[in-house]
Amino acid sequence: MPRPKTRIQQKNSETILEAALDVFSSQGFRGATLDQIAEVAGLSKPNLLYYFPSKEAIHQALLAQLLDTWLDPLRAMNPQGEPVAEIMAYVRRKLDLSRDYPRESRLFANEILQGAPRMQAAIEGELKDLVDDKAAILQTWMDEGKIARMQPVHLIFSIWALTQHYADFDMQVRAVLGAGHDPFAEAGDFLNTLYTRLLRP
Questions:
Q1: Domain 1-53 is found in CATH 1.10.10.60
Q2: How would you class 102 by CB atoms within 10 Å of its CB: exposed for 0-12, middle for 13-18, buried for 19 or more?
Q3: Closest C-alpha to 68, from 113, 122, 110, 117
């Protein structure tokens, strides 16, 4: 059984992961190097390698943390709740996630664009199982006439696309909107209008 980390070891591990998140989210896995991560972390490369044996190990640790963050908003959808309110709360949580965790969103997007070589098992397992479960809830609400009938998995896909866009394409969004705009406040208003009309039976 491994010994628990000391406070300094825990702090250094967290510093490395925070630095790696910056580097991976901006450079992608292939473009990132251990030297870059060590420089951002303010540690020597040998010191970094004491905590993580490779770039792959750092990346894997970040992805493991990310999956729970990514799935929690969908997990919170309550089958006993009022359908439109539950779906709109999910949209809001996903938009808040893009606002508060843009680096994590780009890290996830980069991994998917590369074919998800380090996340394929989780995507085909835990993520798919959760989507299937929530799609069944959406289908039940449709069958009961509580929301408009549509393909439930594609409804979930559309929420991903329309919320994660604001993190993954932040520079483009801000450039097009120009100064004086709050992209996330405006997106929240727009998505509320869009989905409440779309979901109306």
A1: yes
A2: middle
A3: 122
